[in-house]
Amino acid sequence: MGNSILFQQATQNQAVYIHQIEELKTQLSRKAKELGSLQATVRTLQAQMDTGLAYAVQQQEHVQLLLEMERRKTQYLENLLGGPMATDAPTDAPPDPKEAEPSTHPAPLSLSSASSTPEPASSTPEPASSSPPTKASRPRSMSTSASTTSTR
User: Fold this and answer.
1) Using CA atoms, how far apart are residues 33 and 43, in angstroms rounded to an integer?
2) Are 92 and 141 in contact (CB under 8 A)?
3) Number of C-alpha atoms within 13 angstroms, CB side, residue 93?
4) What integer pLDDT is reported at residue 1 of this predicted model?
5) Over 60: is that where the pLDDT of 24 sits?
6) What does the pLDDT look like over 94-113, one tens digit per residue?
């Protein structure tokens, strides 16, 4: 009698274990599909990152090439005009809004005008010397075609 009860309990335990194993197989299969999907997503994202990185490197090389071309152009113009060019800003760039606004700080007072109201600071700097402007000090926006044809 004791053996039949043990046999019956072993049979029931075996059925429970088989059922649990089937559930675990189903969960494992589901997780494997999720993992496959995630791996595909990772591969897609990696490919996109590689493409973006290649594009960024290409753009960086392009910018370096443009900077080198600008440097060579400036050097050529300096050689042509006989002196260093002003490097404030390109002539086709929009004006800096900070420079266009009037100064909010009053001009410093000199000893002779301490009793009078201060005059606003000039927006253009005065030339360092009183000698006439040379080719090198001429603004970049001025046409140089007439002066360069006479020197050739």
Assistant:
1) 15
2) no
3) 8
4) 64
5) yes
6) 555 555 555 554 454 445 44
Cβ-contact 68, 62 below 8 angstroms: no
* The pair of three-digit structure tokens given for residue 12, joined into one six-digit string: 């029931």
CB burial string 72-106: b at 16+ within 10 A, e below? eeeeeeeeebeeeeeeeeeeeeeeeeeeeeeeeee
SS3 109: coil
DSSP notation for 50-107: HHHHHHHHHHHHHHHHHHHHHHHHHHHHHHHHTSPPP-S--TTSPPPHHHHSPPSSPP
What does DSSP assign to residue 34? H
Span 36-65, average pLDDT:
97
Give just the sign of the alpha carbon dihedral 140, 142, 148, 151.
Answer: negative
Specify whether the CB–CB gap between 125 and 108 falls below 8 A: no
pTM beyond cutoff 0.85: no
- The conformation of residue 123, written as its DSSP 8-state character, comes to S
**CA atoms of 26 and 33, how far apart (whole Å):** 11
